Amino acid sequence: MKLLFEVQSLETFNQKLQPLGLRFALSEEPTESSVAIEISGKTLGHLTVCSAHCSLEESTADSLIQLATEQIQTEAALRYELQNTLEELISKYEELTVLYESAETVATVMNLEEVSRLILEQAAEILEVAQGSLMLLNDEGDTLEVVAARGMREDTVGKVTVPVGEEISGTVAQTGKPILIEDLRSHPEYSRPSRAEEDWTSLISVPLRVRDRTLGVLNVNNKKNGEPFSSGDLKMLMALAQLAAISIQNARTYQNAITDRLTSLYNYGYFREQLDRMIADCQETSENLCLLMFDIDHFKNFNDVNGHELGNVCLVGVASLCMDNSRQAGDRLPDLVARYGGEEFMILLRGVTLKRAGEVAERIREAVETRHFPGGENQPGGKVTISIGVAAFPHHASNGDELLNSADEALYEAKRGGRNRVCVAG
Known about the structure:
It is a single chain. The protein is an alpha+beta fold. It folds into 3 domains: 7-86, no CATH class; 112-258, GAF domain (Beta-Lactamase, 2-Layer Sandwich), CATH 3.30.450.40; 268-424, 2-Layer Sandwich (Alpha-Beta Plaits), CATH 3.30.70.270. The chain is built from 10 helices and 14 strands. The strands form 3 sheets. It has a 6-stranded antiparallel beta sheet with strand order 6-5-4-9-8-7, sandwiched between helices. Strands 11-12-10-13-14 form a 5-stranded mixed beta sheet, sandwiched between helices. Strands 1-3-2 form a 3-stranded antiparallel beta sheet, covered by helices on one side. The longest helix is centred in the first third of the chain and has 49 residues, at 58-106. The protein is elongated, with a radius of gyration of 35 Å.
């Protein structure tokens, strides 16, 4: 009642009635002589006559009580509406503030995995949850794959898939509609005793949609304070999901523009852009930047004998070995692996010595030599091999073009030396 009617307003009203021996008070509990104050179908309090020394006739006193009730109800209704409007404005302001901060965080990130991770972090922070996951549809659109997770679900990244239409997330992906469950353990449809070890309580799962197209699902579980999720939590997560879907779509578009479609490695355009940027950065930090340039030995023979389909299988296999044997995480920037064109590949290693770069090159060369490729038996020597040239900035070059030329010369030296070997620029 304090939010809906000021005590001072009632005191002013009582002062006018004092000569008549009447006095009113507001209370939350009803009495035999009280009148309910109702606003929008809700009883917000009770108006009670608290003075028995009325000098008026009973009918006149009843009229005054009715008049007082109507006046107080009118003022309370106005304050009730103002309070609701204020709360809605505050809620909208908080929502917009959160979304603006989230947009600032993810707008400049174009790596799909990083965007997904940041979005999940934002959702977890905003809703104060212990567990969550972000799942994206595969290329066929029939399966959700976990691309980001936190809490007890972190080990599901890249390992757990859910068919569309199955379980909670699959249902959300299929229908495009969110699901809020206050107590998952007792839910008649989705409670799953087999997953009791995850100790899920409350859950929200919302779709990630762009222009009526579902990209995936954002899930959050278990508020840290133990309370169930509310409709306000769902509303906030849905707003964040709209921003997330756009960010993911943008990241995918950018990723497709800089990625070779066959091997999923970076393409030459992106590689060259990053080469020039890294050279500039290393000039300021005095770091080394090493370049590995290599190609598949006798690849024309491989295509001529085995056909282009097996040739593509070979290219994809070599690309996979490059990624597996390159550093993608740790205490320095990840290696940048790119397809230079045809059967040529490039790897940029920032912050490593020339010796270390040579060791990485040798590891990749050996991995290719020992891998069985279909059709490899038709190659000279009976297996698929690669030749690698290694060069470093600033030891062998002062700019990107010179670094490429130095690595290229080292590569041809490896070719002239009999192939299937690593040569470091002189």
